[in-house]
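$ ./design --mode recover --in tokens.txt
reading tokens...
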């Protein structure tokens, strides 16, 4: 096989691989894409779970940063129900103590909540996705665990975060 044919074959295989990955992601009903640019959204809060005294330490120990997009921001400020298109990002970093400080280390995961009442009627209108580490491909297999936790916040449209001036 000549190098020209190898080059063409590699190009065709690369295109087919990319197309199948794109098609596979698009066919996942209600898939939430990685939220590029979320750090330019409004920062809602930071929180640190630093010891086993907190029941969530095993799953969520570390530094939490929460962001909301421009669509959800007015509802957060006013304590109202969120319109479709609202998104929250919860970024969790590992941590370490160093010379009297607590520092963020590598990211454990990025969790996303996206409001779309038509796509997610069984979960209060919210879709959930988790991106492990710095991966841009979602890894959440079942939204039940996310929604079960957030269901306690039904009177607040399933959102834990508060607006703080």
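writing sequence...
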């Amino acid at each position: 096989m000549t190098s020209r044919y190898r080059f063409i074959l590699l190009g065709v295989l690369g295109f087919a691989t990319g197309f199948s990955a794109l098609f596979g992601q698009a066919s996942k009903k209600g898939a939430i894409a990685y939220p590029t640019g979320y750090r330019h959204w409004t920062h809602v809060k930071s929180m640190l779970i630093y010891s086993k005294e907190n029941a969530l330490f095993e799953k969520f120990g570390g530094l939490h940063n929460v962001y909301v997009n421009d669509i959800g921001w007015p509802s957060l400020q006013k304590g109202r129900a969120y319109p479709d298109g609202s998104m929250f990002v919860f970024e969790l970093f590992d941590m370490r103590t160093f010379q009297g400080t607590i520092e963020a280390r590598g990211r454990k995961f990025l969790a996303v909540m996206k409001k779309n009442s038509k796509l997610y009627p069984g979960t209060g209108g919210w879709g959930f996705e988790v991106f492990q580490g710095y991966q841009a491909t979602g890894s959440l297999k079942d939204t039940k665990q996310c929604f079960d936790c957030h269901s306690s916040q039904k009177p607040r449209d399933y959102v834990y975060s508060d607006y703080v001036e």
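exit 0
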